[in-house]
Each structure stands twice: as structure tokens, then as C-alpha cells.
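DM from R.C. (forwarded with permission)

"hey, sorry to bug you on a friday — could you get me a structure for this? deadline for the figure draft is monday and I only need the backbone to look sensible"
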Amino acid sequence: MIKTYYLARILRKLHIPSFNHCQIDKTAKVASGAALTKVKMGRYSYVGSYTHITDSEIGNFCSIGGNCGIGGGMHPLNYVSTSPVFLQGRNILGKNFANIQYQPSKKVMIGNDVWIGECVYIMPGITIGDGAVIGTHAVVTKDVEPYSVVAGVPAKEIRKRFDTEMINSLREIHWWDWPEDKIKEFSELFDDPCKLIGSIK
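My reply, with the result:
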């Protein structure tokens, strides 16, 4: 039983992540089975297992759960067919009946210190503000304001993490852009936003 458990863990680890035209900071981490295409990701951000991200920019200190879908191609709803076999370029079916031009991908912009739960889907072209939280299994169809907590299908705002004054203060200090020595210096205050802001000001 124990041998089977460890064998399963080893086999899971072999599902290495894939990268295509990506810029990933050296401090960032991408878990097994994830697939990233045209992704720029900042420092100390991570992506969970089997998450697929396309044409996206991810800030610093972001936490992205497993089995998420972020960005990707759109199918034309106003054409006769939504199938890619009528569009220009390569497709999974390996067949083109026509070569109609279509721009299926719009960039997703994810701010800094964003937490995205497991199995979230974020549509192409969406902007997620700094400090936002996206609940598990949410489907994000419109932009998310900074420090908003959203959930549901489609995702709707439940509340803000902090009051307006605190949100403005946190966005003003841009702590996610600080050098590591400054983050370490103030890190003991990260459990109390009021103390952190007070010490900075």
C-alpha cells in the first residue's frame, strides 16, 4: 500500500509543466502538469497543478490554484460555425476548409498579490485588480476591482477585503515591488495592515 502511494506520487511528478513563449521570474514556481503559453509572471507567484494559462500577464506574489483555465482562444459566435476548421492557422483537427481571419485571443491582466482558488475559469481579456480574491470554481466574465472578493458563476463581488482608505494605502505603498531586504524588514507587520501602513508613513 505504501509502495503504491509513493509510486503514484512519483508518476504525478513526471507530468512536468510546459512553457511556450513565456517569461517566468526565477523566484516563481509552476507545478506539475501546468501548461503556460505567452505568459509573463512576476516574482514569488505560483501556479498550481494542471492549470492552463494563455496570453496572460501575472504580477508579483500571486497564488493561483490547480485545475484553473485562464485566458485562451475564443470561438466566433457571429460566424456560420464556431469550429476552428474555417479559421486561418493551425488547429487541433489539422484541417482548414477556409482561411477566415480571426483574432481569438485577448490578454488577461492579473495584478499583484492576487489569490485565485482551485478550478477557476477566467475569460480572455479580463483584468483582475491588485489584492483580489477569486473563490473556488468561479467563472470570471468581467473585470475584478482591486481587493475585491468574488465568487460564483458568473463571479460576483461578495465584499472588499478592506475599507477604501486601507485599499488606497496598500496600493500606494506598492509593497510587492519592494526589494527583498525591505520586505524582510517589515515582514513581521504583514499580519496587521494598520501597523504596516503606520510604520511606513
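R.C.: lifesaver. Residues 15 and 125 are 29 Å apart (CA to CA).
me: no worries. DSSP finds four helices and 16 strands in the chain.
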